[in-house]
Amino acid sequence: MSSEMEKADDADKKYSTVMIVDDNVVNLKVAKNALSEFYDVFTVPSAVKMFNLLERNKPELILLDIDMPEMDGHEAIRILKDNPDTSDIPVIFLTGMSSPEDELEGLSLGAIDYISKPFMPQLLRKRVDLHITVEMQKRLLGDQKKTLEAQRTELEYFNENLQKMVDEKTGRVLELQSAILKTVADLVESRDNTTGGHIARTQRTLKVLIEGMDTLDIYKDQMHEFDIGLLLESCQLHDVGKIAISDSILNKTARLTPEEFEEMKKHAVLGVQIIERIASGTSDSDFLKYAKIFAGTHHEKWDGTGYPNGTAGEDIPLPGRLMAIVDVYDALVSERPYKKPYPHEEAVRIILDGKGTHFDPVLVDVFKQVADQFPATNRE
Q: H-helix or E-strand containing 43?
């Protein structure tokens, strides 16, 4: 059954068009060979010719080189996003640049992802598959939204109920918030080939830990103030700063050198900066408050030896102390290119040994009570 569904999914994708813009003929050929079996592919040697082609063809996705003569990728995406006819076309930058500043600049201009050159055909296909799938889902949701809007209009015509209108608007905002969090989380995980499923697993184990706290009345005054649903959704962005970490470090199959690890540690600060940048573009950014806490504090330690700020004890926000436990647990029981997975029992022992040093001792006691549920949760 699953193979039939995959074939149907590939058949749907074949109707999707991908436009590749690069002044390097070799890059165009490699990219087309990697994608043409699954997509209708247009190859274009310059941004100027891309705009000429866009007058007749609107693709589902544009792969855009940055360093090109006549018009570079940054100038091209500005024009694309300023034009209502092309502003909704997602753009992935193809680039030999690797600094976080370059990537953040591109993301701020409206790019949805970066692919470093020279790229691997398999990685290119994987990235394109992810974003095309997201676009297909958005299109489906868009059709559903139009249907819902028509029904809402008819209802309002017969019964102008202010409270109902407010509730519907609130629901759409919550759906949009959820979609933003999920899409950004998917983008983060698509860049990290070594930690597949980490975001979903930590979200599920965090839910178990929070339910245990509720049962045991742990930190109940603080937990009472939290929006638990939004808290659980926001934890998906705890590693969002990895978007700004170079592929060479993020996808290294061996252990990181001390210098590389120092670069990797920057993802906590970069995550906060990225979320602040997102928040600055909206008048309603309260829903990002938990995400910012998760991103900036999940590597702090109870004894103050963590990073990025060396915060200690209850000065570490409670969401960060919670995520520290589930994040380390998942890292221990998951396979990595440089290590085998630890058995559940050994991972539990390591967490318990970190009581009062790495982890909040009260939360470790809760973890001890609910840890037996983790293996089943991670098989979901």
A: strand 40-44
Identify the residue whose tokens are 């933003």.
Answer: 180
**Fold matches, 2-128 and 171-378:** no
215-229, 246-260, 321-335, 347-361: lowest mean pLDDT where? 246-260
H or E element, residue 201: helix 198-216
Of 66-75, 239-248, 263-272, 288-297, least confident by mean pLDDT is 239-248
Q: What confidence score (pLDDT) does residue 226 get? A: 93
Nearest Cα neighbor of 54 from 91, 80, 90 is: 80
Please state, in angstroms and rounded to a whole number, the distance separating the CA atoms of residues 255 and 272: 25
Give the integer Cα–Cα distance in Å for 169 and 5.
34
Nearest-5° Cα angle at 238, 236 to 242: 110
Architecture of the domain whose range is 2-128: 3-Layer(aba) Sandwich (3.40)
Residues 6+ apart with CB under 8 A from 71: 46, 47, 48
Q: How many CB atoms lie within 10 A of CB 113?
A: 21
Are 300 and 309 within 8 A, CB to CB? yes
CA-CA distances (angstroms) from residue 110 to 28, 123, 172, 335?
23, 22, 23, 34
pLDDT, residue 3, reads 47
Q: Residue 240, Cβ neighbours under 10 Å: how many?
A: 26
In the block, residue with structure tokens 């995550």? 271
Reported CATH class of domain 171-378? mainly alpha
Strand bridging mode 113-116 / 91-95: parallel
**Domain boundaries in the chain?**
2-128, 171-378
Tell which residue, 101, 136, 130, has the closest CA to residue 113.
Answer: 130
Beta strands in the chain (DSSP E): 17-21, 40-44, 61-65, 91-95, 113-116
Structure tokens at 289: 């408050």
The pLDDT of residue 168 is 63
Q: 219 vs 91, 193, 210, 215, 351, CA distance in Å?
A: 44, 36, 10, 11, 20
